[in-house]
Amino acid sequence: MGNTVTCCVSPDASPKLSRARGGGGGAAPGPDRWADAYQAAASGGGPGSAEAESGDSDPGGGGPHLQHISDREFPDDLALESNPSDHPRASTIFLSKSQTDVREKRKSNHINHVSPGQLTKKYSSCSTIFIDDSTVSQPNLRSTIKCVTLAIFYHIKNRDSDRSLDIFDEKSHPLTREEVPDDYYKHDPDHKHIYRFVRTLFSAAQLTAECAIVTLVYLERLLTYAEIDICPSNWKRIVLGAILLASKVWDDQAVWNVDYCQILKDITVEDMNEMERHFLELLQFNINVPASVYAKYYFDLRSLADDNNLSFLLEPLSKERAQKLEAISRLCEDKYKDLSKAAMRRSFSADNLVGIRRSNAILS
User: Fold this and answer.
1) Which of 107-111, 173-177, 198-202: highest mean pLDDT?
2) pTM to 2 decimals?
3) Residues 225, 17 contacting (CB under 8 angstroms)
4) CB 253: neighbour CB atoms within 10 A?
5) Smallest Cα–Cα separation from 226: which of 286, 305, 183, 186?
6) Closest CA to 8 of 67, 50, 49, 64
7) Which residues, other chains included, contact 59 with Cβ-Cβ below 8 Å and sequence gap of 6+?
8) For residue 39, is pLDDT > 60?
9) DSSP-derived secondary structure letter, 11
10) Of 56, 64, 184, 272, whose Cβ has the fewest other Cβ atoms within 10 Å?
């Protein structure tokens, strides 16, 4: 299960299942009940496995009814289409939403004969190799936050509608004491505004670049599972909830909810706790991020940066950097060799159990 905090749950536990049944068949467990399961998993020290079981009685009188997690998973075709945060082969939502603007910009430049301007991107040659300081295992923090906030910007700008939930509405749950204007839901935030908001949280909480990528994974998973849109009225609280959850799952020494109240002076701990419980419930406690999904989001963010001229800082590859990269590659190769040897030993032991003997061939 990895770090997925779910195993066997009651069918009434899912907000989508209960909504599909029209509220029949029993009431869904409250957020406090799911929060206990999450806290029990979190107390195990970092991302671990937990089992959340429901003891609700079957309405038919057949005793407790438990649904296995495999029964809750989508068919492969549907999952690949609707859950990019779960499957590495599915296209990320933010990249598809950004392509519309990218194509229009390229078309406009072609029609108006707009010159791309002076080429500032550096290209490698036979004698010099240019490389940035961002890798999939150690992304650059500043560049990653820029790309993640740009992805959020495209989510808001090219949203399908304004579906939302009250727990994320900034008018109902303001983050500051300043009065929220009546037309707050009409004005889309620009990229710089989103970047400043996220950058402030990451700087104050000392979060890592990997946490920013996981934040985007949780954000798209929430939009898919809960069937809502990120829009001007809810983007701050959705992003805050995703950052809060990502920091607890990714970092060993996570930032507490009360610490965010020191960063955002006017928000209360009770509000943070309530938002976290609802966020987890809407995710159906699926907080697992496979390595393949993480890598897909990282490289799609780099593609987004290239399409929008967000260049990573390129420097000539030095001898010291080359030796460091070679050492990292050698370490990974040795790790995979050990894993393959262990797999071969397991297969050999299985052959010995079968007892197949090979006789020497006699050539005459």
Assistant:
1) 198-202
2) 0.67
3) no
4) 8
5) 286
6) 67
7) 25, 26
8) no
9) G
10) 64
Q: Which of 74, 72, 54 is closest to 64 using CA atoms?
A: 54
CA distance 306 to 99: 12
Written in H, E and C, the secondary structure of 295-325 is HHHHHHHHHHHHHCCCCCCEEECCHHHHHHH
Place of tokens 């859950």: 83
**How would you classify the pairing of strands 314-316 and 130-132?**
antiparallel
CB 174 within 8 A of CB 261: no
Torsion of CA 128, 130, 133, 139, to 10 degrees: -140
Q: Where are the alpha helices (DSSP H) in 50-178?
A: 69-72, 76-82, 93-111, 141-157
Helix (H, G, I), strand (E, B) or coil at 64: strand
The whole-number pLDDT of residue 159 equals 92
CA distance 242 to 207: 13
Q: Are 243 and 211 in contact (CB under 8 A)?
A: yes
Round to whole Å and give the CA distance between 8 and 235: 32
By C-alpha distance, which of 260, 254, 225 is closest to 240?
A: 260
One DSSP character per residue, 188-249 reads PPPHHHHHHHHHHHHHHHT--HHHHHHHHHHHHHHHHHHT----TTTHHHHHHHHHHHHHHH
Quick one: average pLDDT of 344-361? Answer: 52
Question: Cα dihedral angle (14, 16, 19, 24), rounded to 10 degrees?
Answer: -40
Q: Could you identify the residue written with the tokens 């438990």?
A: 66
CA distance 214 to 253: 16
